[in-house]
Amino acid sequence: MIIAIDGPAASGKGTLGTRLAEHLGLAHLDTGLLYRAVACTLIDQKAALTDIAAATLAAQSLTLDRLADPRLRGASMGEFASVISGYQPVRDALLTFQHQFAAQEGGAVLDGRDIGTVVCPHADVKLFITAAPEERARRRHLELQRRGEPSEYERILNDIRRRDQRDMNRSTAPLKAAADAVTLDTTNLDADAAFEAALAIIKARPAQK
Ligand SMILES: Nc1ncnc2c1ncn2[C@@H]1O[C@H](COP(=O)(O)OP(=O)(O)O)[C@@H](O)[C@H]1O
Ligand SMILES: Nc1ccn([C@@H]2O[C@H](COP(=O)(O)OP(=O)(O)O)[C@@H](O)[C@H]2O)c(=O)n1
């Protein structure tokens, strides 16, 4: 079974993907980490974020073990990832990576921005996870504080809004719900309630899928 989860920044995609994968015994890929890893490689190489050739090479050379680097989860890496994610050759290289991951025995859960629309258009279940920007900023702010990273709520909110706009308006694989996705607004749902709601959607899917 393939489960595609998409949605804007800090909506809870990764948390939900991890829990669903664990519950259903499936592998899970947080595809945002792929874009973050490419951005991080450019920074390590002291290459500019505008260097499309270097970004493409980094995407082509990416391996799963690279995704464990804790630096990828920093707030600025999300912003850098959003910039390089607009380059078509980078997306093409990462598409191959994601297709290989999704093709594994038993299936997988993938979360990101274009899983239901581009990466896995034939997914068995497509979820589009949303929440009000203020709630998403609150969650990310708490997360950064818990990790001991400096964080200002207003700045996080502005960053999230700017990144959502960029992700929704880019010409290649923009953030949007697939026509056959089920939208789940988690503004007033905690992580447990969001998990239960997603599980109910999965169980209720049509029998032919
Ligand atoms: N439904 C929820 N209610 C409250 N907090 C949540 C919920 N889902 C996730 N979180 C928390 O919000 C933050 C962002 O969640 P995450 O899963 O990383 O989002 P995304 O993958 O969409 O960026 C994390 O700290 C996570 O623990
Ligand atoms: N499938 C995906 C996943 C992420 N991305 C890009 O990567 C950035 C970081 O994604 P992420 O999922 O790690 O970000 P958060 O939602 O965790 O803040 C996003 O803002 C997108 O620009 C993408 O273009 N396509």
Automatic annotation (TrEMBL):
In its UniProt record, which GO terms are filed under biological process? pyrimidine nucleotide metabolic process
Q: What is its EC number?
A: 2.7.4.25
Q: Where does ATP bind?
A: 7-15
Q: Please verify whether the record's keywords include Nucleotide-binding.
A: yes
Concerning Pfam families, the annotation shows: Cytidylate_kin
Q: Name one GO cellular component term.
A: cytoplasm
Known catalytic reactions? CMP + ATP = CDP + ADP; dCMP + ATP = dCDP + ADP
Instruction: State whether keyword Manganese applies.
Output: no
The source's domain of life comes to Bacteria
- What's the name of the protein? Cytidylate kinase
Which GO molecular function entries does the Swiss-Prot or TrEMBL record give?
ATP binding; CMP kinase activity; dCMP kinase activity
Using the record for this protein, list the coiled-coil segments as residue ranges, or answer none: none
Protein localization:
Cytoplasm
Q: Which family does it belong to?
A: Belongs to the cytidylate kinase family. Type 1 subfamily.
* Species annotation: Microvirga brassicacearum
**Which InterPro entries does the record match to this protein?**
Cytidylate_kin, Cytidylate_kinase_dom, P-loop_NTPase
Give every Cytidylate kinase domain span. Answer: 3-203
Assigned keywords, A-Z:
ATP-binding, Cytoplasm, Kinase, Nucleotide-binding, Transferase
What HAMAP family would the database entry show?
Cytidyl_kinase_type1
